[in-house]
């Protein structure tokens, strides 16, 4: 059992009013979890302490070489007051795969889960309950050696912060416009595309800004070599429904393996909908659209769960999907996954974990 020290805040903040929209990632709860690592000594000093600034050397390696892992998952409060996490084991597994890729220490799975539960339980009053709201959980690991040489750090800090988030779609699912990027690339096979780490995000910002300026909300990335194969959207995986079949790019080393992606694939299989995980080219999408069989497109990720795509722009082609509206499967998938997360639909797959 992880031995956690608790230091409660003496100056609790005001919990935001749920009726005012909570902008994603702007408000943080009263506490955070920290735990340190040192080569030879291992993990130590697990603690839940008041949320606040960290003290780090300016030479800390994370600032210079980007050695960091992050994760994102959510806690929900059910109508009968239980607190549920959605598939935290998948996030923990993925965090450790990221840690391995970035030469950072493994965090024991049971300690990671105990840390999540401890900090969420401490700030449980911050979990909003209005339709569509949740408590976003951001675990991350940073390299802290005060050293400018290039090698993996010997010391690290693991941190978990919490942020109440409002409904992603206050007015119901709202289709997004997607910009298919043909100049910049996000990641290549053999690189760090399948790791959840800041480096992939900074690589994506230039195209994101370009897409925003053109009136598109997110970027869809093509492969970094041929610029033909579909990879994923900014912070979401992507699914296409073509002529009754569901198609999503296969995990190829440069795509982030999403927990929501995995959940969607499993549900499609349960519902008897054919799912193909394979290579898919932008030309295939363009042809499908031209032939009127591109039936639905949606992104999947923890923040929005399901994000229907109403329009895709590729070079000078504009492809409208579902007339800019929401597909039947996108809606059913959203209702089912959020229903399980909120304890409204029976969780036959043991996806939810209760925090007691
Ligand atoms: C986190 C993330 C996703 C979505 O993963 P989920 O586990 O479903 O939230 C997809 N793509 C990228 C680049 C990501 O960082």
UniProtKB/TrEMBL annotation:
Its cofactor is pyridoxal 5'-phosphate. Pathway: Amino-acid biosynthesis; L-isoleucine biosynthesis; L-isoleucine from 2-oxobutanoate: step 4/4; Amino-acid biosynthesis; L-valine biosynthesis; L-valine from pyruvate: step 4/4; Amino-acid biosynthesis; L-leucine biosynthesis; L-leucine from 3-methyl-2-oxobutanoate: step 4/4. PROSITE patterns: AA_TRANSFER_CLASS_4. Pfam families: Aminotran_4. CDD domains: BCAT_beta_family. The modification N6-(pyridoxal phosphate)lysine is found at residue 196. It comes from the Bacteria. It is an enzyme of class 2 (transferase). It catalyses: L-leucine + 2-oxoglutarate = 4-methyl-2-oxopentanoate + L-glutamate; L-isoleucine + 2-oxoglutarate = (S)-3-methyl-2-oxopentanoate + L-glutamate; L-valine + 2-oxoglutarate = 3-methyl-2-oxobutanoate + L-glutamate. InterPro entries: Aminotrans_IV, Aminotrans_IV_CS, Aminotransferase-like, B_amino_transII, BCAT-like_C, BCAT-like_N, BCAT_family. Keywords: Amino-acid biosynthesis, Aminotransferase, Branched-chain amino acid biosynthesis, Pyridoxal phosphate, Transferase. GO terms for molecular function: L-isoleucine-2-oxoglutarate transaminase activity; L-leucine-2-oxoglutarate transaminase activity; L-valine-2-oxoglutarate transaminase activity. GO terms for biological process: isoleucine biosynthetic process; L-leucine biosynthetic process; L-valine biosynthetic process. Its EC number is 2.6.1.42. Belongs to the class-IV pyridoxal-phosphate-dependent aminotransferase family. This is Branched-chain-amino-acid aminotransferase.
């Amino acid at each position: 059992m992880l031995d956690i020290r608790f230091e409660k805040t003496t100056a609790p903040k005001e919990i935001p009013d749920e009726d005012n929209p909570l902008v994603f990632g702007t408000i943080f709860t009263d506490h955070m979890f920290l735990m340190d690592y040192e080569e030879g000594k291992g993990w130590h000093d697990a603690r839940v302490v008041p949320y606040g600034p960290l003290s780090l050397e300016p030479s800390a390696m994370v600032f210079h070489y980007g050695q960091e892992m992050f994760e994102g998952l959510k806690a929900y409060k059910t109508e009968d007051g239980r607190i549920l996490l959605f598939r935290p084991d998948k996030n923990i597994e993925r965090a450790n795969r990221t840690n391995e890729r970035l030469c950072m220490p493994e965090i024991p799975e049971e300690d990671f889960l105990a840390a999540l539960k401890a900090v969420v339980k401490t700030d449980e009053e911050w979990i909003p309950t209005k339709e569509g709201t949740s408590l976003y959980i951001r675990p991350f690991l940073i390299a802290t050696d005060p050293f400018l040489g290039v090698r993996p750090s010997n010391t690290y800090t693991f941190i978990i912060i919490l942020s109440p988030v409002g409904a992603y779609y206050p007015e119901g699912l709202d289709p997004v416009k997607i910009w298919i990027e043909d100049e910049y690339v996000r990641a290549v096979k053999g690189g760090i595309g399948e790791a959840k780490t800041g480096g992939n995000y900074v690589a994506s910002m230039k195209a994101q800004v370009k897409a925003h300026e053109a009136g598109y909300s997110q970027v869809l990335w093509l492969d970094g070599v041929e610029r033909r194969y579909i990879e994923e959207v900014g912070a979401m995986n992507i699914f296409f429904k073509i002529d009754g079949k569901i198609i999503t790019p296969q995990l190829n080393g440069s795509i982030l393996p999403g927990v929501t992606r995995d959940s969607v694939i499993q549900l499609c299989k349960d519902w008897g909908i054919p799912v193909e995980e394979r290579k898919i080219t932008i030309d295939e999408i363009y042809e499908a659209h031209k032939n009127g069989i591109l039936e639905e497109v949606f992104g999947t990720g923890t923040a929005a769960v399901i994000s229907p795509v109403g329009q895709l722009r590729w070079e000078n082609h504009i492809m409208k999907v579902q007339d800019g509206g929401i597909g039947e499967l996108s809606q059913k998938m959203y209702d089912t996954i959020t229903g399980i997360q909120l304890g409204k639909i029976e969780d036959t797959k043991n996806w939810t974990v209760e925090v007691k």
